Amino acid sequence: MAAAPRRLLVVWHSFTGATRTMAETLAASAREVGGEALQVSLLHAADAGAEDVLAADAVVFATPETLASISGAMKDFFDRSYYPLLGRCDGKPYALVVCAGSDGHPTIAQLQRIATGLRLREVAEPVLVCTHAQTPEAIAAEKQVPEAELERARELGALLAAGLELGIF
Ligand SMILES: Cc1cc2nc3c(=O)[nH]c(=O)nc-3n(C[C@H](O)[C@H](O)[C@H](O)COP(=O)(O)O)c2cc1C
User: Fold this and answer.
1) Model-level pTM?
2) 1: pLDDT confidence band, cut at 50, 70 and 90?
3) Does residue 104 line the site of ligand 1, with CB under 6 A?
4) CA dist 25 to 3, 165, 166, Å?
5) Strand partners, 98
6) pLDDT tens by residue, 36-57
7) Torsion angle of the four alpha carbons 108, 149, 120, 169, in this order, in degrees rounded to the nearest 10
């Protein structure tokens, strides 16, 4: 009998497309590398909850930076999920994708603090994409993610898929 597929969950939020594109690209790459042995779920933060994290073997959190923090929708996801997850996901592998107009480091630090609280295990370097959006017009514009950044999303998806398939995570 074939082993049950491993599960990768990508929880994402995006205003102007950069984080969504990164999350979709990462998920497509993970599906390609993982094949039938990997089930990849791509969930908007508003549709994700603690049960989805509990059902996953590894999780990616992908968010824009807003006002030097995770976006409101991602905050709402953690507000709803944090205590239902506490003590129930120790050691679960995770990775981060953050898109920011100029910085992103406060958001990475915030996510890592949350993950430390949940005792999640970071298994890859965070992927930080600078979209160079700093004027109101640039911030409001739909984002085109450069190929080099998309490649980083593919690499992270492939790494997570391979790690799950080989039982490294
Ligand atoms: C309300 C608001 C606040 C923002 N604050 C920051 C910030 O503190 N630091 C930063 O680097 N970028 C900031 N940005 C820029 C976004 O991170 C940037 O536009 C990013 O591309 C958004 O990702 P998305 O295309 O996935 O929505 C802000 C954008 C908005 C709309």
Assistant:
1) 0.98
2) low
3) yes
4) 26, 19, 22
5) 63, 128
6) 999 999 999 999 999 999 999 9
7) -160
| Contact of 11 with 52, CB cutoff 8 Å | yes
φ and ψ of 92, to 5 deg: -65, 130
68 Cβ inside 6 Å of ligand 1:
yes
Tokens 């953050």 belong to residue: 98
The pLDDT assigned to 3 comes to 79
Distant-in-sequence contacts of 132-141, Cβ < 8 A, 24+ apart: 132/101, 132/102, 133/16, 133/101, 133/102, 134/101, 134/102, 138/101, 139/16, 139/101, 140/16, 141/16
Give the angle 31-13-44 at the CA atoms, nearest 5°: 60
The CA 66 to ligand 1 mean position distance, Å, reads 5
Q: Per DSSP, which regions of 1-102 are E strands?
A: 6-12, 38-44, 58-66, 69-70, 93-100
What is the rounded distance in angstroms from the CA atom of residue 135 to the CA atom of residue 36?
44
Residue 168 in tokens: 């490294």
17 lines ligand 1 (CB under 6 A): yes
Q: Which of 70, 52, 51 is nearest to 10 (CA)?
A: 52
The phi, psi pair for 153, rounded to 5°, reads: -65, -40
